[in-house]
What we know:
The structure holds 2 protein chains of 2 kinds.
Chain A: E1 4-7, E2 10-13, E3 19-25, E4 32-38, E5 44-51, E6 57-58, E7 67-73, E8 76-81, E9 90-97, E10 103-104, E11 108-112
Chain B: E1 3-5, E2 10-14, E3 19-21, E4 24-26, E5 32-38, E6 44-50, E7 56-58, E8 64-68, E9 73-78, E10 87-95, E11 100-104, E12 108-113
Parallel strand pairs in B: 2-12
Antiparallel strand pairs in B: 1-4, 3-9, 5-6, 5-10, 7-8, 8-9, 10-11, 10-12
Amino acid sequence: GAVVSQHPSWVICKSGTSVKIECRSLDFQATTMFWYRQFPKQSLMLMATSNEGSKATYEQGVEKDKFLINHASLTLSTLTVTSAHPEDSSFYICSARPRDEQFFGPGTRLTVL
Amino acid sequence: AQSVTQPDIHITVSEGASLELRCNYSYGATPYLFWYVQSPGQGLQLLLKYFSGDTLVQGIKGFEAEFKRSQSSFNLRKPSVHWSDAAEYFCAVGDQTGANNLFFGTGTRLTVIP
């Protein structure tokens, strides 16, 4: 139980395009999901907290207009990287919280050319 | 400010040998501490957590960790490593039950040699 999936697992896009990443809780409902970013040889950094039916809460320094988060249902949150640039290339990980523990997805590697 | 330090970027051990991964934290309140393991293509999996009580906690896959408040440490140990333990290990500190605001260390990559 408590499985979280992400799609796609990797994506390559051209600079200036937008990319959508999906995070799904497969066997539970999650009112709260989290989006993290991980740079090589660095720790996971929380980008935002996604709450079903309401606006996401972004961490300091994260551009909410660039990283659009939508949590339209209790099992799906999406992260859209708008007008992506090479510096947005990273590993994006989501997690979902059914109760008092976060369960993590496998991550999505984004490469912007 | 909250922070987690994992001083060892990469550790190599022989299969069957003992293992200790170091973790030091800085946290302004009562720390809630976690160890996660990340295998390629898979999400982070919780190995164990410490909230309160006995400072030696047991986790899955034969792992244990000891909370030492005086040293601000939460080191992960395993008496005999298996080849399947090769992965990336992350220490994290959080508030309340750990369901929010997790701060992660940079991770330690474990290589197991036959």
